[in-house]
What we know:
Strand 2 (39-42) and strand 3 (48-51) form a beta hairpin. The protein is an alpha+beta fold. It has 4 helices and 3 strands, in the order βααββαα. It has a 3-stranded antiparallel beta sheet. It has helices spanning 19-24, 28-33, 61-71, 97-100; strands at residues 14-17, 39-42, 48-51.
Amino acid sequence: xxxxxxxxxxxxxxxxxxxxxxxxxxxxxxxxxxxxxxxxxxxxxxxxxxxxxxxxxxxxxxxxxxxxxxxxxxxxxxxxxxxxxxxxxxxxxxxxxxxxxx
Length: 102
């Protein structure tokens, strides 16, 4: 929680991104023009609502990859860890975001 303004804790079909991180990602216009999101809605105080695809059913591996590619500069370093109590398979890129950054 303490790193919530420095790193994005994760991403999904819908991701709420705080203003500090929107700025580091190039702003609302850059996010909207990235091609990774069907909807980019500005929120008060500079944040953004990022919706990957129009519907959840369309949130496939390609869409997950597009979101990861755009958000990797503000994702925590390291390979994601599975929650041993969660029986669902999260739609994530199982790659170290630090290694993907430009």
